[in-house]
Write a structure and sequence with these properties.
heterodimer; A: 288 residues; alpha+beta; 6-stranded mixed β-sheet; 10 helices; 14% strand; B: 203 residues; mainly alpha; 2 strands; globular
Chain lengths: 288, 203
């Protein structure tokens, strides 16, 4: 094993998470690699420093929290901080609402027709080009949105009511992206925003830009290899009342991200789900 | 009284029961927030926000996971939201450039050293804090959950909603990245101190 391969085992060793075989491989490598021995020692030291750097919370933290909960106003927070905190919280709630995509209603109305066409054409093109491994779709169609909400459909199906809630006949807009694991590492590193196992990509987040760049760039033209992972982006456009109902059904145990305020004044909302499979996804029924 | 009972009581509106949970978890939650935000003030705000959210969401908490896991996830998400917001609306920065264009961290996320701590230990710890602050949020998050909060792979996987194998590989990358940043910080401080020494030399 080379030093790159051994890295996970160094970390696993610190956590006692290696199997006996992994530990044997590690020890064999360490016996002849001074660099990795030094690395392990430094990692060990860093872990120890981190563990030793525990800080005491402010003495009045519990009091502040409980004062708020018991309905008394806390007096210890300076006005500015409170305002910033409030703004931050409000923005977070707005950003992370399940509706994910608050669109300008007027733009939505105007854009819907084109959007259908664009995506339908993408899907048709995909079907047509499937034979030679070319996949083309139009991700621009959702670029107008302020944020893109990506979730794992299976989890939503089993754990939450939202997916099932989508009314019969809701047109699924399938955006197919053929991505080998190497070509599409972006989503692997995402951090779920809530208990749905979903990630919200604000438009100005680097991941969002990366995702768009990857999708609009070479990625969509990746050839299908034997071991391709197919990530299917399913975009639903739903009326606001559907999203509001979804809010009320959602298990909010991840946080209360289901504040109708996060819908802004949008009349329609867009949900993007991602499905992964190792076989070609089924194309949707006729769209629109 | 066991935790599940207290959680259930708190969920039904018993503030006293909730207070025992706040008292018990404020330390680890505050430290998680501290490492994620890099600032004591933000950490206190985010910890407070976490517990307020928890209080409101508790009636809908059904023990799908352990209470602690749920709380860590809540704190983690609260901090990430906050960091995203800060990134989009920079009002106050954690870092500032000095006259040499070097990025300096304004707020070292540590309490004042205790008298018995040696200067070297304090310096090392501060260097590590700066290295942590220089990591990606996700790396800081997973390292904190493991090395500061001491959570198991199973718990971390649950909090981050990934597989345990992913926890292992991400931790390896995070530890490696931390080590690189730590080394880098060392080199920078060595360079910077030699630069300052030159200033004292007679011209």
């Amino acid at each position: 094993m080379n030093c790159t391969d051994i890295l996970p085992l160094l970390s696993g060793h610190l956590d006692q998470a290696n199997t006996a075989e992994e530990e044997r491989l590690l020890q064999t490598h360490l016996a002849r690699c001074a660099d990795c021995r030094a690395l392990l020692q430094q990692m060990e030291q860093n872990d120890a420093l981190l563990a030793a750097s525990l800080a005491e919370p402010p003495a009045d933290l519990t009091l502040r929290i409980m004062s708020r909960i018991r309905g008394k106003k806390t007096s210890s927070r300076p006005g500015k901080r409170t305002l910033i905190s409030w703004l931050a919280t409000g923005a977070a709630a707005a950003l992370l609402g399940f509706a994910l995509v608050g669109e300008k209603p007027a733009m939505e109305t105007a854009a819907t027709g084109n959007e259908h066409v664009a995506i339908s054409e993408g899907v048709e093109k995909y079907a047509a080009d499937n034979a030679n491994g070319q996949i083309i779709f139009d991700f621009e169609a959702i670029e107008e949105t302020s944020a893109c909400y990506i979730g794992n459909t299976d989890r939503l199906k089993t754990r939450h009511g939202v997916y099932r809630l989508l009314p019969e006949g809701t047109p699924p807009f399938l955006l197919v992206c053929n991505a080998t694991p190497d070509a599409f590492p972006l989503l692997e590193g995402y951090t779920p925003d809530d208990d749905n196992g979903t990630v919200l990509l604000p438009k100005d987040a680097s991941l969002y830009d990366d995702l768009l760049a990857a999708l609009n760039g070479g990625l969509a033209k990746e050839s299908i290899s034997g071991k391709a992972v197919y990530r299917t982006f399913i975009v639903y456009t739903v009326p606001r009342d559907v999203m509001e109902e979804a809010y009320s059904l959602c298990d909010p145990s991840g946080a209360f991200l289901y504040d109708p305020a996060s819908l802004y004044d949008a009349e329609t909302c867009k949900i993007v789900f991602v499905q992964e499979s190792d076989t070609l996804p089924t194309l949707p029924q006729s769209v629109g | 009284m066991d935790e599940i009972t207290r959680v259930k009581q708190a969920a039904s509106g018993n503030a006293d029961a909730f207070e025992t949970l706040v008292t018990e978890y404020q330390g680890p939650i505050y430290n998680l927030c501290l490492r994620l935000t890099g600032s004591r003030e933000d950490a206190a705000d985010m910890a407070q926000e976490t517990f307020l959210k928890a209080w409101n969401a508790l009636p809908r908490f059904h023990f799908d996971s352990a209470f602690s896991t749920w709380l860590y996830r809540l704190a983690s998400n609260t901090c990430l939201d906050h960091l995203r917001y800060q990134k989009r609306h920079p009002q106050s920065s954690l870092t500032v450039e000095d006259e040499d264009g070097e990025t300096q961290i304004l707020d070292i996320a540590d309490d004042a050293p205790t008298p018995e701590e040696s200067a070297i230990a304090v310096e090392e710890r501060e260097r590590l804090c700066r290295a942590m602050d220089a990591l990606d949020t996700e790396q800081r998050q997973i390292l904190t959950l493991r090395a500061v909060n001491g959570l198991s792979y199973t718990d971390i996987a649950d909090i981050l909603d990934v597989k345990e194998g992913t926890v292992k590989s991400r931790l390896a990358r995070a530890r490696s990245a931390l080590r690189n940043k730590f080394e880098h910080m060392g080199n920078k401080s060595a360079l910077s101190s030699s630069k300052h020494q030159k200033g004292w030399l007679p011209k």
